[in-house]
Amino acid sequence: MVTLSEIQKLNFDIKLRNHIWFWGSYFTLNFLRWGAYFNDYDYSFKSNLIEFSLHIPLVYFNLFILVPHYVLKQKYLKYTLALLFSLFAVYLLKTALTYYIISENIWPEANREYHPFDINHILAVCIGELYVLAMASSVYLTLTWIRERERNRSLLENQFKIKLKYLENQIQPHFFFNTLNNLYALSLESSDKVPDVIIKLSNLMEYVLYEVKGTRFVPLIKEIDYIQNYIEIEKLRFENVEVTINLESNIEDIKVPPLIFISLVENAFKHGGLNNKNLKIKINCKVEDNKLLHLEILNNFVISQKNNPKGGIGLINTKKRLKLIYKNNFSLQYKTKLNYYIISLQIPIHNED
Predict the structure, then answer these.
(1) Which residues contact residue 97 at a Cβ distance below 8 angstroms, ignoring those fewer than 6 apart?
(2) Would you give the DSSP letter of residue 107?
(3) 64 by DSSP, 3-state: which?
(4) How far, in Å, CA of 282 to CA of 273, rounded?
(5) Residue 107: CB partners within 8 Å, gap ≥ 6?
């Protein structure tokens, strides 16, 4: 429903030239129509000039005065009375102008002569005004509704982008915080691996800050490279870790949301590495029926009271991002089987084209 404030601003939403174009076109069509019908273009021009000088004020008076003050406030009886009074005023003006400017015969279109305040003449004038009022108001409000719909759509798109950016900004600091913790742990040991970690971390930051900034989808191959660099960093921290990546399909033309998988891989190291001297991680990626991309991540873990694998902020944000991007057209599931924690993600394929 259009609100009072929106109705009051309608005249600013549609440019003046569009108002002029509408009324000019309507006047021209009416002038030609009745001029041809009676074979009297001079009378048609004068008659329509009088009528449109009354049509136009009545339409805008109804849209910007009567509707906001009565219809939108549900004062329908007052609106009806005000409209009837307006129609009667238009009748008086039209009859007087026709009588004094055009002809003493106030309704020459009829088959006989009519006098002012004849019931048939009153009804004909009022019905004609209501017809113009309904048609012009319908066109006007339809255009306004279309504009409001586009404005709302734009607001929703901006809201979507803001939410998505917020979640991405949460994921990135979370990931780099964990990586810096790894680096700190190595520095305490005076490990000679520190320079390698710094270089690889620099490569990861370059990808995040420059290559995927402002993009909704990136090539899956780049995401796999990014994950492999991350894995190399984690391998520097874990002495005994075995990571296997299986790509069962051709993925060269497939695109995915940036950084959508890293939290899943990070989770495997986070929970699988606790008290685990022989961490094994397996990443399977395949395309199903040329429609769905299926990613499965498995990691073993040591069963204990303190180690109960479950998703943290990274997995929560990943699910929220997937919800924003794919609505309900995705699947993200977690389960444990024996001493393995399994994450399964299924999303629609976004091709290069």
Answers:
(1) 50, 53
(2) -
(3) helix
(4) 14
(5) 113, 114, 121, 124
**Integer Cα distance of 312 and 161 in angstroms:** 23
**Cβ-based burial of 29 (10 A; exposed 0-12, middle 13-18, buried ≥19):** exposed
- Residue pair 338/276 in contact (Cβ under 8 Å)? The answer is no
Low-confidence spans in the chain with pLDDT less than 50: 1-2, 4-12, 305
Question: CA distances (Å), 285 to each of 4, 53, 250, 251, in order?
Answer: 55, 72, 10, 9
User: Degrees (nearest 5) of the Cα angle 214, 215, 217?
Assistant: 160
pLDDT attached to residue 281: 92
Neighbours of 275 (CB within 10 A): 11
Q: Estimate to the nearest angstrom the gap between the alpha carbon of 87 and the chain centroid.
A: 43
The pLDDT of residue 194: 76
Cα 24 to Cα 28, 31, 70: the distances in Å are: 6, 10, 30
Contact indicator for 206, 345 with CB cutoff of 8 Å: no
3-state secondary structure of 214: coil
Q: Which residues contact 304 (CB under 8 A, 6 or more apart)?
A: 275
- Residue 179 to residue 172: CA distance in whole angstroms: 11
Residue 289 burial by CB count (10 A; 0-12/13-18/19+): exposed, middle or buried? exposed
Amino acid identity of residue 50, one-letter, is: I
Q: Is 123:84 a contact under the CB 8 Å cutoff?
A: no
